[in-house]
Amino acid sequence: MDLGYTLPYLDVRIFDILVGAIILVVGFLVVKLIVHSFKKSMKKTKLPSLVIQFLGRFLSAIFYIVVILLAFSFVGVDVGSVVLGFSAVLGLILGFGLQDTMNNVFSGVWIAALRPLDKDERVEVQGQDGIVTEVGLMATVLLKPDNTRVTIPNKLIWDEPIINYSRMPERRIDIPVGISYDGDVDKAVQVALDFLKDQEEILDEPEPQVSVTDLGDSSVNLMLKGWTDKEKYWRIRFNLTEGIFKAYNEADIEIPYPQRDIHVDGEMISKEE
Predict the structure, then answer these.
(1) What pLDDT, in 10s, does the model give residues 129-175?
(2) Using N-to-C axis directions, what is the helix angle for 49-75 and 98-114, rounded to 10°?
(3) I need a surface site. Which of 3, 164, 177, 233 has the fewest CB within 10 A?
(4) Residues 108-124: pLDDT tens digits?
(5) For the chain, what are the domain ranges?
């Protein structure tokens, strides 16, 4: 009794289809186990987590292709023709921009190897500021402060300057503030310097500084500079901005607002901006 069943255009048996499906399911599970074991073993080495993640994705892609081709061969599909078809598709991709694809892949390799950025670090690249969540074969993903994800092609990252806010243990906080031209500059500098030195979370070394930076249209501009631990940067920055405003008010030091004098028919009119 013949239990075989002939499908249109393919002389395959139900048993072959079942075997092919089993190969796919079992093969995918085995690939996951192999990649998981590979990542686990690599964590015992000194390789950075970003490199391990990248290699895991690369191995997964190769193993999945092998499993799929193996399953097709049991179903009765001529794997040689599949490979030939894949080569044709690959040729089209080469003709329509594989160069950019390979640039992204190689840039990803360099990023993972040289580590100008790493997982969980805060960076700014291509005008985007966020936490690095992953570096894939083709692109790097950032999580922005507003919880939106930005995916940037690796070649754009490698070709542009990368600002890494997390790599160094301390960061300098710069707070600009302006005082009136009628104010006492020496007093303003001393009040600001005393204010910085009174902040427990501002480091003594490097020493806090207050400098006159430039003469603006409506104010003499100062810059407060203090160092703190990188984890405290934003909280301390907000506190310093609020604190220097209060300190100047208590010391009767005026922080001016922009003002413009307009002359109309010989009469001067002051206009606030």
Answers:
(1) 999 998 887 899 999 999 999 999 999 999 889 999 999 999 999 99
(2) 140
(3) 3
(4) 888 888 889 988 999 99
(5) 14-96, 115-164, 170-250
DSSP string, 81-111: HHHHHHHHHHHHHHHTTHHHHHHHHHHHHHH
* 57-93 pLDDT per residue, tens: 878 887 888 888 787 777 666 666 666 666 666 566 5
CATH topology of domain 115-164: SH3 type barrels. (2.30.30)
Q: What are the phi and psi torsion angles at 10 (to 5°)?
A: -135, 120
| Residue 84 CA: distances (Å) to CA of 24, 87, 147, 248 | 21, 5, 44, 76
**Residue 82 CA: distances (Å) to CA of 11, 92, 193, 232:** 17, 15, 73, 57
Other Cβ atoms less than 10 A from the Cβ of 75: the count is 19
What residues contact 45, with CB distance under 8 A and at least 6 apart? Answer: none
Residue that has been written with the tokens 């806010």 in this structure:
165
pLDDT tens for each residue of 218-251? 899 999 999 999 999 999 999 999 999 999 999 9
Bond into 206 cis (ω within 30): yes
**Is the entire prediction scored with pTM above 0.70?**
no
- Domain boundaries 170-250, corresponding CATH code: 3.30.70.100
Write out the two tokens for 107. Answer: 């840039």
Please tell me the predicted confidence (pLDDT) of residue 114.
86
**From residue 179, how far is each of 23, 69, 219, 261 by CA, in Å?**
75, 73, 5, 19
Fold entry, domain 14-96: Helix Hairpins (1.10.287)
